[in-house]
Specification:
alpha/beta, 6-stranded parallel sheet
């Protein structure tokens, strides 16, 4: 059954990792809520049962979901505990969603932004047991997947684990629902969409990762007096923060008189690498989460975004930060071979650096300085296209095109 594109839709967004400021879930779902409501749709949001008050107040979220396994992935629990969490989390999710849905009229769309295997176990149960009599469409998003890459052959394969086997089985179980268009399997990058379609044998659909522009007057005709380069968000190994700090140290050593300011957000860790920059007066550290409205102010004064993310983690995955940079007309330095570089090359202005190579990062910084005007002109040429592509409106259009 088709959905009338001209009629308002009622969305139910369900995210158990929506609890605090860790990750990008708050910003991501805020973007959806605001964008969908601007298009005339209704939005209901379910969050972690212990979500912080600012999430409940800002998003009007309903806190009923079990604790996210994402928040516990690195807690050092033994393998038995980790495996037991999967069925427990699935069962708790089923109970919470069942109780909620029985008290409400059917939704047009249920959107689950984060689906890992423990989510899929519960959602297969819900889709098979509680949604067959409704016209509700379910979008299941896979931000990451248990696949490995063979450097020699260039091929991707499923990893060999019990949870991967369960994931493959559950995807196969949903074949009829996917073929009927009742369940849409989504991915946020073209490489992820292609790999999951190939490995699963089911059609995964590309959807953009929506981000709202923060800056309305970004374009600068000539380099400012001080070029500002930024790295924002919690520092992590997969994001190459150690490589970045070493690269900046090498750049500063070769360019002691450079009029470039580096603003680096690092909440914890990387003490050895940070020490390399301890005497560099052009480095400013941010050691806390941004307060409401603070991040846009930093973006507004940032000319270049520094993103030397590791290929091992971002060969397929999306990064919200690179999209935030592109839609706000900010030049991007990103690792060649990552989805960040792919997207910045297509939609923004990219300077490539090599994977896990501090010297290459230093060279990329120098290139961005020397070619600033050409790069910012490229941002200007792409700004309208990138802002539309990574919009809630385009996401909604992709959904309607898929089901109709």
């Amino acid at each position: 059954m088709e959905i009338n594109a001209s009629q308002p839709l009622h969305w139910l967004i369900i995210e158990d990792a929506l609890r605090d400021q860790k990750g990008h879930w708050f910003e991501y779902i805020t973007t959806f809520r605001r964008g969908l409501q601007a298009l005339g749709d209704e939005v209901t949001i379910l969050a972690d049962k212990e979500a912080q008050s600012f999430i409940l107040e800002h998003l009007k979220a309903i806190p009923i979901l079990p604790h996210s396994i994402w928040h516990r992935m690195s807690d050092g629990a033994n393998p038995l505990i980790r495996y037991l969490r999967l069925p427990i989390h699935a069962w708790q999710t089923v109970k919470a969603i069942k109780q909620f849905l029985t008290q409400k009229d059917p939704y047009d769309v249920i959107f689950v932004p984060t689906v890992l295997v423990h989510h899929l176990l519960g959602w297969t149960w819900i889709i098979k047991r509680y949604l067959p009599q409704t016209q509700t469409r379910v979008i299941l998003f896979f931000p990451n997947a248990p696949v490995s890459y063979d450097v020699a052959t260039g091929n991707y394969n499923w990893t060999n684990s019990l949870t991967t086997r369960l994931l493959k089985f559950l995807l196969k179980t949903l074949t009829s629902e996917v073929q009927q268009g009742r369940v849409i399997l989504g991915a946020e990058t073209y490489p992820m969409q292609k790999v999951l379609t190939q490995l699963s044998g089911l059609p995964f659909t590309y959807f953009p990762h929506p981000v709202e522009p923060f800056i309305t007057n970004f374009y600068q005709e000539s380099p400012p007096g001080k070029l500002v380069m930024g790295s924002y968000g919690a520092a992590r190994h997969e994001k190459g923060n150690d490589i970045l700090y070493q690269g900046i140290s090498k750049f500063n050593a070769l360019n002691p008189n450079s009029n470039t300011e580096f603003i680096l957000q690092c909440l914890e860790g990387f003490e050895a690498e940070k020490a390399l920059l301890s005497h560099d007066v052009n480095v400013n550290w941010l050691t806390n989460y941004f307060q409401p409205g603070e991040y846009p102010r930093y973006l507004e004064k940032t000319n270049v975004m520094l993103l030397p993310y590791r290929i091992s983690s971002y060969r397929l995955r999306v990064s919200r930060v690179v999209i935030e940079a592109m839609i706000n007309g900010i030049i991007v330095i990103a690792t060649d071979g990552t989805t960040l570089a792919d997207q910045a090359a297509e939609f923004g202005a990219l300077v490539r650096c090599k994977n896990e190579d501090p010297v290459s990062v230093a060279e990329a910084i120098n290139y961005a300085i020397n070619h600033y005007q050409d790069l910012i002109n490229q941002c200007q040429l792409n700004i309208s296209r990138v802002q539309f592509h990574f919009s809630v409106k385009y996401f909604r259009n992709c959904f309607l095109t898929k089901i109709n």
